[in-house]
Structures are given as structure tokens and as C-alpha cells.
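SAMPLE LOG
Freezer: B-3
Tube label: C17
Construct: single chain, 418 aa
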Amino acid sequence: MPTFQAPRGTADRLPVEQKYWRYIEAHAADVARRFGYGRIDSPMFEDAGLFVRGVGEGTDIVEKEMYVFEDRGGDLLTLRAEGTAPVCRAYLQHGLHNGPQPARLYYLCPVFRYERPQAGRFRQHHQFGVEAIGDPDPSVDAEVIELAWTFMHYIGLQDITLLTNSIGDGQCRPEYIAALQSYYQAQSGHLCPDCKERLGRNPLRLLDCKVETCRSLGEDAPKSVDCLCAGCEAHWGRVQSYLTAAGIPNRVDHRLVRGLDYYTRTVFEIQPAVEGAQSTICGGGRYDGLIEQLGGRPTPGIGFGSGIERLALNLQRAETPVPDEPAPQYLIATIGEAARIEGVRLARRLRNAGVGAILANGGRALRGQMRQASALGVANVLILGDDEVRDGTVVVRDMQASGQETVAVASFLDNAAG
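STRUCTURE (predicted):
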């Protein structure tokens, strides 16, 4: 019989790896709370039109990467392809525009994209993301970037670079698009097949291409910051001044456009020292037209997404010390059936008191049960035999100091629970 394996582009997260995930998630929630962001959880699947309309028909996500299926009711649905559009849908559906603005929201969720798996990129991956919806002020841009920057340092990633750019808005971007098309049409013979196709319908994406020849052409392409209208230029200048005031260094990268159609004005990425197309560990930007595209009133917004798999990979590469998940405090070793029954009772009483305890494997000799405690990293073993059951006592053995003492069960429980 053939054995089953996890689908290509997915991964099992074993107990030994969980410490990185719990560490990242706990720090993400803590930083978000300090910045005033509340958690939101959206469904794992949405109406397929949400992503087509929000993310953009010309994007790789919509054209090549979405998991789309028809349910039994005939509705066309898509597994969550990115985090922002569902949050914006929830913002509209639940009337969050009626509350204090901006609505500050964060999420931890799986995302699904059919793409070529590689280091740090999976078909099912997980994101920590934040969205600030309802305030156009440049200080909100700086706040979101500062949150991302603070989070990276908080989890121990120090050798990182913040890249920023402004890609303008509906008023000034047409001029920039025209300049890009003119430049790339003159270089069309050197473009990859995908970029030749994008040139007419989504020329911004040429700057985001990972093919080396296209990336080289992007070095000399027109710069969006040179084509900004007065409003976008003023917004961009204030974002930069606020980042300077917050002490956050950044480098302007004119090729930075991000891969989604909804971005306007500020875009940014955070990259570690490791180079490569998949090195980005955080990316986001402003999306002032997205809510309107989804059927709402014009509403500004800005946010970011950060892949947890890539964060965990970079923590391991940097050998960042991450605390192990705590082992149970006690292993209960028993000798004889009467002691086994008493061990079941003792384990339950400890767990009900909030103390971690496991019962050693049955049928093993005492020495084998002690070896099990060592293998599991349990600090203390509670030994029960016929004498202990008769006397209402338990032997408490310290595995590190190799010392032990016999104490009354009632007294032990009082101390353990305290």
C-alpha cells in the first residue's frame, strides 16, 4: 500500500518546531496590542470575486495562484489568497466605519497560493498582518511601518533593511505609467515572456519581476517619486519625516511596487541580510482605493503582511535564542496496579490545579519510567508504590539534583498548586 504524504507546498509543524511559531505569534499579538490593534479573524474561504476585484485581474495571484472551487450550492469560492481584502470586506460588512477611525486590526491566519514551493514559500503559508483603515494621514503610514519594524526587532531579527517607495495615486500615476511603457517598449526584446504580456496592461509589475534580465532593466527605469503630484509628494515627504523622528532608517527603492494592484502612495518591505528573491519577510503599503473597489465609500487604508514561515526560517538562520515549549512539571511513575489507579487520580488532581503532569507508560519497570522522564525533559518524578498508596504519601524525585523525599500527598498538592 502506498503511504500518504503532505501535499506539495505544505508542511507539517511538528512539536519540536512549535516553539518558533508560538514565540512569533505571542510577540506579534503583544506588539499589536501595544500599538492599539485588535485581533480579527476572517473565514478561510471567500467569494472569489473579492480577490478578483480587490487584488486585481492582472496580478499573478488572480491569474495563476488562487485556489478556486465551486461549492455544492454553485457559489464560486476561493481559499484566502491574501489577508487585506477579507479584512476590508469585514470592515464594510460590520460597519466598522461607524467606530473610531482608523480601525486598527491585526490577524494571524493561513494563506493559500498555488506557486512553486521553495525555501520560505509554501502553497499554504501563514501570515501576521495588520491593517489601519479610515485615516489618510501620513502619520498612520509611519505608525504601521514602525509596528512592523518594532516587531522584527522584538523577536530578535536585528540585521534587517527597510525599503520604501511612493507609487503615487490615480492623479499622478498615469503619467508614470506612460513613462514606464515608453522605457520598456524600447527594451521589449530583452523582456521575459510574462513581462512582454504585462507591458500593455500592468506595466508596474515589470519592476517587480524576479527574472534577472528584467530586474537589471528595472535599475534604469523611470522613478515613481519623480512623477508624484503635489499631494502625493507632500504625503511622501511627511512619511519620511515621521520615520526619521521615530529613529527608523530606510532606503528608497524605486523598483519597489509590491505585487498587488490596490496599492497607492506608500509601499514598503523589510528584508534580512540574506539576499534573494524570496528574502522579503514583511511587505505592505497604502491602499486608499480598495474599499471603494469593494463597494464602499472612498476610504483610506494601510497595512502589511509578514510570513511566519520566513520569520521562523530567519530566526533559525540567525541562531536567535527561542525558549523551548515548557515540558510537564511532573511524571508519575507507578509500581503495581493499586499505585497505577492512585497515579491516575494524582495526575487528574495536578492538572485540575493547573500543573502539568503525565502518567508514565504502563508496564515498564521503574528504571524504564525514569528514563522516560529524562527523555521528555521532565524535572520531577513522582513515585507511587504499595507503601505510598497505603500511607497516603508520594516520593518526589528531583531529576537534576538526583535527590528525593517522601511527602504526604495532601501536603504535596497544596504546595504544587501554590
